[in-house]
Design brief:
Length: 164
């Protein structure tokens, strides 16, 4: 029965079928190879892209940490801070353990009760003013590094979705 169906096509049908098969097989193989090669290259490009983004994010974070470390070191070396801490340490060294515990308990009670004098002594001194100046930064300066890292992360979300 299969011979009958094939014979119905005749020579012309058989030649056309053979030409289609001979043309279709290399086409399918070529398309498959192109797909595999394209996927491989996309993975390589995405890897290089992510690597460069990670390096840039690391440099940005390194700059932020370096800046914070410098600011902290500058605060710690401040003569006003050093002198204030040395004075406080010298004043506390002259007391025995019982007196220190009583002073600490009194200060803790004053702080918890919201004593205005203690609060003002802590927040309105020349040392407090110095620390406020050192810590106060415009929001744009602080957020700049975080915005850059966020931008780097979101820029490649499309590439990572493509690879999935």
């Amino acid at each position: 029965m299969t011979d009958r169906k094939l014979s119905r096509f005749g020579l012309r049908g058989k030649l056309i079928s053979a030409m289609l098969l001979v043309g279709a097989v290399p086409l399918v193989v070529g398309m498959g190879m192109a797909l595999l090669q394209g996927t491989q290259e996309l993975h390589q490009m995405a890897g290089v892209n992510f690597e460069s983004l990670a390096a840039e994010a690391a440099r940005t974070m390194d700059l932020v940490f370096s800046d914070e470390l410098t600011r902290t070191a500058r605060i710690a070396r401040s003569p006003l801070l050093v002198e204030t801490l040395e004075t406080q340490a010298a004043r506390l060294e002259s007391h025995d353990e019982a007196k220190l515990a009583a002073v600490e308990s009194t200060a803790k009670h004053q702080w918890e009760s919201g004593d205005a004098q203690l609060f003002e002594a802590v927040t309105e001194s020349s040392l407090a003013d110095f620390l406020k100046q050192q810590v106060a930064r415009p929001a744009e300066v602080l957020d700049l590094a975080l915005q850059r890292v966020n931008l780097l992360f979101h820029r490649n979300r499309g590439v990572s979705k493509l690879l999935q």
